[in-house]
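Data deposition worksheet. Section B asks for the primary sequence of the deposited chain exactly as it was used as input, without tags or linkers unless they were present during the calculation. Section C holds the resulting structure in token form. Section D is free text for depositor observations; keep each observation to a single sentence. Incomplete worksheets are returned to the depositor.
Section A, Depositor: J.P.
Section B:
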Amino acid sequence: MTEPIIRKLRKEDLQNGFLTTLDSLKQASNIETKKAEEIFEKINSTPDYTIAVAELGGKVVGSTTLLIEQKFIHNGGLVGHIEDVVVDKNHQGQKIGEKIMKFLLEIANERGCYKTILDCTDDVKQFYEKLGFKQVASELRFDHI
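Section C:
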């Protein structure tokens, strides 16, 4: 198996597998190109927001997002938040998600985050525990829509 290239999202990735990969989480590939590019530009201009992708055979097959939050507590410490971990269904089971996660955890570490957190369902909890995450609390959610 060829090793995936793990790197930050580029504008050209939007139409090269990134949005269709997100479809494994929630429909994203139907967004208008102009709107997707506007979102990319906004995200790309924010240093506390990183989307990492896995490229395999010239196409994006996985991605994960890292948001870094500044706190007043912990003497102004930083917290990493992991969101939208996804690997194309045709490429799951190849450790691509693990490689993307390690890439972003290294960024969080380099930026000085004192912790990185994420929410997940019970069916994928073991995946994150293998990476060193521990269950600390329960998630509660309020839906605005």
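Section D:
Residues 96-111 form the longest helix (16 residues).
The domain at 5-130 is CATH 3.40.630.30 (Aminopeptidase).
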